[in-house]
Amino acid sequence: MHSWKRPDENLNHEEQRAQGKAFLCDSLCPLWLNSPVRAKIVSATSQPKPTSLLKRIATAVVLIPIVLALILRAPVPVVAVIAAAVALITIHEFLKLTESYGVQPLRLPTYIFVGMFFLLLAFNVGNEKPLLSTAIFVFCLGFAAAVAPFLALTIAMRRAEQRSGYPAAAASVFAFTYIALPMGMLVQLRQQWAGAFYLLYLLLVVWAGDIFAYFVGKSMGRRLMSPRISPKKTWEGAAASLAASVGVGWLLFHFALPISSALLRVGLIERRDGLFGLEQPALGPVILLTIALNIAAQLGDLVESLIKRGAGVKDSGAILPGHGGMLDRIDALLFAAPVLWFYTAWRVMQ
Fold this sequence. Notes:
This protein is mainly α and about 350 residues long. The protein has helices at about 15-30, 35-45, 50-75, 75-100, 105-120, 130-155, 165-190, 195-220, 235-255, 255-265, 285-310, 325-350, and strands spanning about 225, 230-235.
């Protein structure tokens, strides 16, 4: 006879339900119900509903063509405005998560500071000169990162409750560094030569890794990667994610010339935004870069899971049906974008 035990409080609601169903199956099923059958029943009760997967696919089908059209064809000021909107929505979700940690965030000052940062990027200074635009961005990035703590702490000093000042300022500065700066790097990346192609490469590599990690992890995952932070992530899913990213990255650069030529013919890019002829880097460094991007993306996913786990929520929001919040959707991109930006900036400065 099995004794009752309290569900693990470290698990979320869905995981506790699955644990409870496993216990009932152990306790109440007849003896002839052997363990393989029981495992299938428990697994079936914990699988996501088909409607959730359909919502996830439908949202991706609608958004992916729009995102690709924007990064390939839209002028840099438009890209900056879209990036600002995404950053502000994501920061709103993040600051809401910090409230679960007892933080009373500086919402309006954070939104204004982030908006001004992207307004500066929208001016598109040095667009035709990649070296100049990169140098200006580095200066602006360093200045904003240095000023952000000063401004946040100065504003927090006005609070009547002094204990809430520093956590609020720290949350605002972290939101700017964690979300706004990587999104700003995407805008500056678009200003560089072949910037549209590199943005396309980044998104496809991250998306491919995410898709393969999800489906392979669900169907074949056995070894848990980080059960305390993200119980559903497995090493099998991580390996599939890495393999998919490397495959997509290799294909994109191997066929960079025909892909760029096709995009140029249909009017989706200008010549400066594609990768032609001698501009193509060697495939060896590309594979190493893709591996670094995939590792960064998977770490970004785990970091966001850590934040949500501490806040006691499953999703950062509900703005994207089937995907959760905006932070849920771009968490991997926030870690991968700086890696690619540093690589392209290094190439520009050579």
